[in-house]
Design brief:
The complex is a heterodimer of chains A (677) and B (458). In chain A, 53% of the residues lie in helices and 2% in strands. Chain A is mainly α. The chains are: A mainly alpha (677), B alpha/beta (458).
């Protein structure tokens, strides 16, 4: 494993120096980690099949409840159904026609198990799982261009976002134990372009309340922000001081712009003043910009050309205005413009750090605030939190340890085995990811009123996860091999079964990423993309994705089986360029502009053959063509009825290339393609 | 913020709520149940249904100043104060009320406008403030609140409408959140007319050639090769496929998709969609609105309101005036002034103003203390101005007051939730109505502490 330690030297030093003063809980945490490492090593030999007994218990527990309720579960899924679902859940895309063919021809009885192992070991698994975690932890898509979201959303876009995603992918590829990952996420320090793990904290800006709320939701499975303003009304044990105790862990946490951003801003101002320095400023790097960085709250302010003004244009506003300068400033302006271009990539890079959070630190911060004559309510609230004693959620208080950030103390406690919430939250999250609904649902809202549908099951999975090295692949293997996961989504009775019984596979709309990757695969755009250079691929992908996300990504907080769509989605699917091009051939890819329009003349691509055109040439019978298109989109052969119906339609449409466009358009827009089932 | 706890106040147990809110159907059952009544009647204390003006507004236009307009240099000038800087003030048709001199035409409309000078919020970061001022809730990591346009679309919109019921011009500023994608802002882009001004460009900057025409509505027309008949045949076959898939699974999937295409098709085929052809307006009309991007946006808004669209948002950028602020605001006012006054004129002329609430708002105000180094102002949520006109609002009055330096609200404090409680009141929307997020959490339309600003109406 080539995982870089994310602890700062300061913390490492402190850890060496003061074990005695370290406090009981932290010591316990350390022991737990040592034990965890031992297990991680054993995990290498996990080719033993002990997980199979857990899978059997999962099915037994689900089966017992079904029997109790007198519900007969759905039959086992067909191979095709299983394969498509597995690909979408693990890799975020539909299988290729070749993969479908090979799997269906395989007569080995354990082929499903083998396929699960194959996918769990694949590269694209790590990529897709990283996207899943990115979305879970930030609420945003890694592929989204500019973020409209507040709360530091912009810090997980561009370079910072890519780094965060890359960090997640690296951990997953190495099968890093989840407790170690979580510890890094909660306690990471440094620049978002240097230490990817910092993306998580950066996403919540320097807002201690929101960061505490996010960490509690993601790693403890509880919604504590209700107790932010007052004692919780229906959870008598959740007091406002419990919330403040959690928020106090982040009192010292700072998310600030990097120095390059200060320089960029200064250059921008100079540019606007026709190359002159603003009054009282003598150029150089020690000007206002760098001072500004030290001012709490400087981050996030005053960035002209915020997302809204620019529509979807991207980049920094104002860059278009550069051209029209005056002659005398011409030279300087060009140099400035060049430097600005270099610096632009740092615009949303931040550095995550910790100030001393204790009474003395609070006093000092207060003095600084007085000097600055700033009555920033956020800053005042943070100072108050600094002198608040941090307290683990519904557990003991944490003693401040010199030289160690409070965040780090929290990270140790969250991931320690003494914390009863950590493992069950993950187990429930994974269950919901594959089964469509949590054992506790909603998944991030464990509370005393909401009983789990299968308490023993939750306990079983949590315990197994905890005692087997917090191994994400192991718990996925357990769930994916279960009969519960491998049921069909078909249900012939009039009334649907209670979703909490897990009697059938859920039907879920594809998320933006699944839809995008499935579409480019089914239409053959993917094959063309793979022929382009890596850089080009990324550009094209981003170009398509920005349109895509804009159209489809408005469904935050949508219920699982809510399939409603918006008018822009309907228009995009009916009239949009992407589908049109993919269907009708011509340039199958959107054009990518050179950096500066005009200078780098892009090479004109020769109009490519579309997948449909190729199909029409290589296959002569309608039956074979229909079959192929079914396999491409649905991952299965059509039934006799379906094939006949398709041929009838094709004939009515004239039987030519255009008829096939119509046919495939309908296939791609159909519920069977647009859902995971 | 703790909207979630609110509903429990009436002694309805959490367990009931969870049970009732598990699915859409169950939520609907709840809506019809006596429980719902308990929320609606008592959820917000002292909701005064007797205040005049309730439900007068049938349509709403939001004019959103992205970046945060300086209150001192627009609607709350303090002539003679050290914080005033270069901007001058003029009298308006309402005696004793002065606004910035660069807003002469709006000055003549002050008798239509109720000016709120006691606005005060707590978010000083653009993105957070934009969220707050679009939803009435501060952002939190646990839930996505609905932009108020989506609420209006949901509450007032017609299922049979041919145009989308919430259209955002040069936005959008918020997401539909818990209301759902069906009521997402329908985002359209309007450009400045040829040779016109774009508020995002610096005054006097060399204007670059247009970056090429962007269509106002993306994907509104079929590809040239797909005739309406062909399109309908495609959809016909699609419905067959969906029928087959749904038959032994769940009908919900196919039905939802059919509904989506149906709505998109209705828009494509509607004669009303010519409302989007704003450039077909006469030179004279465009000139009246001021030949600017924002002016075209306001003109478009008027056209959409004429067609019955329930809510239109027009975004105007450029207000983040940290540097060279006085010149910049003057130039922005120069675009705001004719656009707003032409819009009010036209709504009045057609008789629509009485039923159309026009709201002017932005991220926040700007620091009264001038940043002398940069000759501009920073972000300032503590005290700022916003206004409303039409839709039952009593014009010609000023509500609230800031101190001599425009730094603190000294009278008539209005919080964002009060602002939205007032808009809900004007439109007859039940501010206490409870929705459920996809995860089953209850949320009220307006944050619980919101109080209607009575002086707007009576």
């Amino acid at each position: 494993m080539n995982i870089k330690p994310t602890r700062s030297p300061r913390i490492r030093r402190a850890l060496r120096l003061i074990p005695a003063a370290f406090g009981l809980l932290v010591a316990v945490g350390l022991v737990a980690t040592v034990a965890g490492i031992g297990q991680a090593d054993e995990r290498g030999a996990s080719s033993t099949d002990d997980w199979r007994s857990v899978t059997a218990q999962v099915d037994a527990l689900i089966g017992a409840k079904l029997a109790e309720e007198g519900v007969k579960p759905a039959e086992q899924s067909s191979d095709a159904e299983f394969l498509r679902r597995l690909y979408l859940d693990l890799l975020g895309t539909v299988p290729t026609p070749e993969e479908v063919r090979v799997f269906s021809a395989d007569n080995n009885r354990s082929k499903r198990s083998a396929k699960i192992e194959e996918l769990l070991a694949s590269d694209s698994y790590s990529e897709h799982q990283a996207s899943f975690w990115f979305r879970t932890l930030t609420g945003l898509s890694v592929h989204q261009g500019r973020q409209r979201e507040g709360q530091g959303g912009r810090y997980v876009t561009g370079e910072g976002g890519k780094n965060f995603h890359q960090w997640l992918a690296t951990q997953i590829a190495a099968n890093r134990p989840y407790n170690e990952m979580a510890q890094d996420l909660i306690s990471a320090t440094g620049r978002t372009d240097e230490n990817g793990a910092t993306g998580y904290i950066a996403r919540w800006e320097s807002n201690a309340n929101n960061t505490a709320g996010a960490v509690a939701k993601h790693f403890l499975g509880v919604q504590i922000q209700c107790a932010q303003c007052h004692d919780h009304i229906y959870e008598p044990d959740w007091k406002q001081k419990d919330f403040q105790g959690m928020a106090a862990f982040f009192a010292g946490t700072r998310v600030q712009r990097v120095p390059e951003y200060g320089e960029l801003r200064q250059l921008r101002t100079r540019m606007q003043n026709d190359g002159k320095l603003p009054a009282n400023k003598k150029g150089g790097k020690k000007g206002k910009a760098s001072r500004e960085l030290k001012r709490p709250g400087a981050a996030g302010e005053g960035m002209p050309g915020n997302g809204m003004d620019g529509g979807m244009d991207g980049g920094m506003e104002g860059s278009d205005e550069m051209g029209g300068g005056k002659e005398r400033a011409g030279m300087a302006k060009e140099a400035i413009a060049a430097r600005m271009r270099e610096l632009r990539k740092y615009a949303n890079i931040v550095v995550v750090s910790d100030q001393k959070a204790n009474a003395r630190g609070a006093k000092r911060a207060m003095e600084r605030l007085k000097v600055a004559k700033k009555k920033n309510p956020d800053a005042l609230a943070r100072i108050e939190l600094m002198s608040t004693t941090p307290k683990f959620w519904l557990a003991s208080e944490a003693a401040d340890v010199p030289g160690i950030s409070r965040r780090y103390l929290l990270a140790r406690w969250v991931t320690s085995k003494e914390n009863p919430y950590f493992a069950r939250t993950l187990a429930n999250r994974m269950w919901a990811h594959f089964m469509g609904r949590g054992i506790v649902d909603p998944i991030d809202d464990f509370n005393s009123f909401q009983a789990p549908s299968h308490p023993e099951l939750l306990k079983l999975l949590g315990e197994d996860f905890k005692t087997n090295g917090h191994d994400l692949r192991r718990i996925q293997r357990i769930l994916l091999n279960s009969a519960t996961y491998q049921r069909s989504s078909r249900w012939s009775e009039e009334t649907q079964p209670d979703a909490a019984l897990f009697a059938k596979a859920p039907i879920r709309p594809l998320n933006t990423e699944q839809l995008y990757f499935s579409l480019i695969r089914a239409t053959g755009i993917e094959t063309r993309l793979n022929q382009a250079s890596r850089r080009q691929q990324q550009q094209i992908q981003q170009a398509i994705f920005s349109v895509f996300t804009f159209v489809f990504d408005d469904d935050e907080g949508k219920a699982e089986e809510d399939f409603s769509g918006s008018i822009p989605q309907g228009l995009f699917l009916m009239n949009g360029e992407l589908l049109q091009r993919a269907l009708s051939g011509g340039k199958a890819l959107p054009e990518v502009k050179g950096r500066r329009g005009g200078k780098n003349r892009r090479r004109r691509q020769r109009p490519a053959q579309s997948m449909l055109e190729n199909l029409l040439r290589s296959e002569s019978s309608d039956t074979a063509r229909v079959s192929q298109l079914y396999v491409r989109a649905y991952g299965r052969e059509p039934t006799t009825d379906e094939s006949a119906e398709a041929r009838k339609f094709l004939k009515a449409q004239g039987g030519d290339a255009k008829a096939y466009e119509d046919f495939f358009w309908a296939i791609l827009n159909s519920a069977e393609f647009m859902t995971n089932h | 913020m703790c909207n979630k706890c609110e509903t429990v106040r009436q002694g309805v147990s959490r367990r009931d709520l969870i049970r009732y809110s598990l699915s859409g159907a169950a939520a609907a059952a709840l809506m019809a149940s006596p429980l719902r009544h308990a929320f609606a009647e008592e959820g917000i204390e002292q909701r005064d249904l007797t205040i005049a003006g309730r439900g007068t507004a049938k349509q709403v236009i939001f004019l959103y100043m992205s970046g945060g307009a300086s209150h001192l240099d627009t609607f709350d000038p303090k002539p003679g104060a050290a914080t005033q800087g270069d901007s001058k003030a003029i009298d308006t048709v309402v005696s004793g009320v002065k606004i910035a001199r660069s807003l002469p035409q709006i000055a003549k409309h002050m008798d239509d406008i109720a000016l709120i000078r006691g606005m005060s919020s707590k978010e000083g970061n653009h993105e957070r403030a934009r969220y707050l001022m679009h939803t009435g809730y501060a952002p939190t990591p646990t839930v996505v609140h609905a932009g108020f346009g989506s609420v209006i679309s949901h509450e007032l919109g017609l299922a049979t409408a041919e145009l989308p019921e919430f259209i955002s011009i040069n936005g959008p500023g918020a997401r539909p959140g818990y209301i759902g994608v069906k009521h997402a802002p329908f985002a359209i882009q309007v450009q400045a007319p040829a040779g016109g001004m774009d508020e995002r460009q610096r005054p006097g900057a060399a204007r670059k050639g247009s970056r090429g025409k962007r269509p106002v509505v993306q994907n509104l027309t079929s590809p040239s090769t797909v005739s309406p008949e062909r399109r309908d045949e495609r959809i016909g076959f699609l419905e067959k496929l969906n029928g087959r898939f749904s038959k032994d699974r769940t009908k919900a999937v196919g039905e939802a998709q059919t509904a989506m295409f149906e709505r998109a098709r209705r828009l494509m085929d509607s004669p009303k969609n010519t409302a989007f052809d704003v450039e077909g307006e006469s030179e004279a009309t465009i000139a009246r609105y001021g030949k600017s991007r924002f002016g075209m946006g306001c003109l478009m808004a008027r056209r959409l309101i004429d067609e019955g669209v329930k809510c239109v948002e027009v975004m105007m950028g450029g207000w983040d005036t940290h540097d060279d602020g006085f010149n910049k605001v003057r130039a922005l006012n120069g675009q705001l002034d004719p656009a707003v006054s032409a819009l009010l004129d036209d709504l009045k002329k057609s008789g629509k103003l009485a039923e159309t609430l026009v709201v002017w708002v932005g991220d926040f105000g700007r620091t009264p203390r001038i940043d002398t180094g940069r000759n501009g102002r920073g972000h300032y949520p503590r005290a700022w101005s916003t206004w409303m006109a039409g839709g039952g609002v009593q014009g010609g009055r000023v509500i609230g007051k800031t101190d001599a330096r425009a730094e603190t609200v000294v009278d008539g404090h209005v919080k964002p939730e009060d602002f939205y409680a007032s808009i809900a009141h004007a439109t007859g929307i039940d501010a206490a109505k409870t929705f459920y997020t996809g995860q089953g959490r209850p949320i009220q339309i307006v944050y619980k502490d919101g109080r209607v600003v009575k002086d707007l109406f009576a």
